[in-house]
Specification:
- This protein has helices at residues 67-84, 233-265, 268-276, 300-312, 319-329, and strands spanning 22-26, 29-33, 37-39, 41-44, 49-51, 57-59, 62-64, 104-105, 107-111, 115-117, 120-124, 133-137, 141-143, 148-152, 160-164, 168-170, 175-182, 186-188, 193-200, 205-209, 212-214, 392-397, 403-408.
- By secondary structure, it is an alpha/beta fold.
- Strands 1, 3, 4, 6, 7, 9, 12, 15, 17, 19 and 21 form an eleven-stranded parallel beta sheet that branches. Strands 5-2-20-18-16-13-10 form a seven-stranded parallel beta sheet, with no helix packed on it. The chain has a three-stranded parallel beta sheet with strand order 8-11-14, with no helix packed on it.
- α4 (300-312) packs antiparallel against α5 (319-329).
């Protein structure tokens, strides 16, 4: 049946109350698939489920089972009843409103059961933006794919209302205009756009699939005054930590991770020797000093026999200088014996004053003589103490090299050694 445009004068506007700021309002749940864009508030009550909005862009408040959503549902019920109560301006059954012969002017258009839109329906404002267009569907509202609602001659999208007795389905790619109010579910198929609102009462759910829903210019989202605005404080708070985190992770995480990782990853053997070698303090260890002397004597235990030997032969004109020079070249300075000059090569100071030597028990000398070149020699005697002021002679036995006589100054005794008699 092809309907002609009808002019109505009895219809009145429909007040939405607090539901005016909502692009999506449901009673049971809201679900979304894909990157939908919603310019307006979204809310659900008495249900609480809102899913898939992480993929969507919502420029408005989100209210789930709170006082705001409850109030919006109450105002929606009033608006729905107000639209349903207005009498049709034309008694015809507008079950199909697409591709009519003439545009529809302001008025109330009714379908006793289902109302369908296939193709395009044109709404003519007659040169005024005050015209009211109300469509009443007894059961369902269904639009075909790529169907369109077009406004001409000043028709205002804010004054277009669709009151649906059960559910509404907007086909794929539909370009729709006006506020849809249902008692049951509303489904917007892929790519459908709405300049208006999708409002389902307490038993209904709203399902979106990559859609664009925009209430402007017929309403203003409550973004500035609702909870979603508080994220402005979160960025402020997170900005400060961000500055701090930039410092902490860069400073502490990087050194902490690098220090344990690098030593562990690197060959421990290489790291340990490298660290140990430089600090080695062996070269810098000061030499042991001889009490009463300014010269350092490393390996002190080895010096004792050297001193005894050097002291024993210090007076020898040949052997003494040789031994002294050798020990001096090795860095072992010899102390002087009383009344003797320093040995050649020795770093010790010059002669010291002669001091008397206290007598000490002596061990017996060798029991057999040591001859020169294997020949027998005279037995020596060094067992008796030498009195102070008395000179003596000691014989240094060197084996195949022969024996050397060492004149001793007054008061000097040699220690009991097996090679001295």
């Amino acid at each position: 049946m092809t309907m002609l445009g009808t002019v109505a004068s009895a219809q009145s506007s429909v007040g939405l109350g607090t539901a005016q700021s909502y692009a999506i309002l449901a009673g049971a749940a809201i679900s979304n698939t894909g990157p939908s864009t919603i310019n307006g508030d979204i809310g659900v009550s008495p249900g609480t489920a809102i899913t898939g909005m992480d993929e969507a862009t919502v420029n408005g408040a989100t209210n789930a089972a709170n006082a705001a959503a409850l109030q919006a549902q109450s105002d929606l019920t009033i608006a729905y009843n107000e639209a349903a109560s207005q009498p049709p301006t034309d008694p015809a059954n507008y079950s199909q409103i697409g591709n009519l012969e003439n545009p529809l002017t302001s008025g109330v258009y009714n379908a006793t059961s289902s109302m369908n839109l296939t193709g395009t329906v044109t709404l003519d404002g007659g040169g005024s933006s005050d015209g009211i267009f109300i469509f009443q569907a007894g059961t369902t509202l269904v639009t075909g794919s790529n169907s369109r609602v077009e406004l001409i001659n000043g028709a205002n999208p804010c004054n277009v209302f669709w009151q649906v007795g059960s559910s509404a389905t907007l086909g794929t790619g539909t370009s729709f205009v006006g506020t849809v109010m249902t008692t049951l579910d509303i489904s917007a198929n892929t790519g459908a756009t709405v300049q208006g609102r999708l409002l389902a009462q307490t038993a209904g759910a709203v399902t979106l699939d990559n859609n664009t829903i925009n209430i402007e210019p017929c309403g203003t989202p409550t973004v500035p005054t609702t909870t979603p605005v508080t994220p402005t404080t979160d960025p402020d708070d997170s900005t400060t930590p961000t500055t701090t985190e930039t410092t902490d992770p860069d400073d502490s995480t990087t050194p902490t991770t690098t220090e344990p990782t690098e030593p562990t990853t690197s060959v421990p053997t290489t790291t340990a020797p490298t660290t140990t070698v430089p600090p080695t303090s062996v070269p810098t260890t000061p030499p042991t000093s001889v009490p009463g002397s300014s010269s350092g004597i490393p390996l002190f235990p080895l010096l004792i026999p050297a001193i005894l030997l050097g002291g024993s032969v210090a007076a020898a004109p040949i052997v003494g200088p040789m031994i002294g020079q050798s020990l001096g070249d090795l860095g072992f300075p010899l102390p002087e014996l009383p009344g003797f000059p320093p040995l050649a090569g020795s770093a010790m100071p010059g002669p010291a004053p002669v001091l008397p030597v206290a007598p000490a028990p002596m061990a017996p000398g060798p029991e057999s003589p040591n001859g020169r070149g294997g020949e027998p020699g005279a037995m020596g005697d060094v067992t008796n103490p030498v009195a102070a002021g008395t000179a003596g002679t000691a014989v240094l036995m060197t084996g195949s090299m022969g024996d050397f006589e060492l004149p001793l100054p007054s008061g000097v005794r040699l220690p009991p050694l097996p090679f001295i008699r």
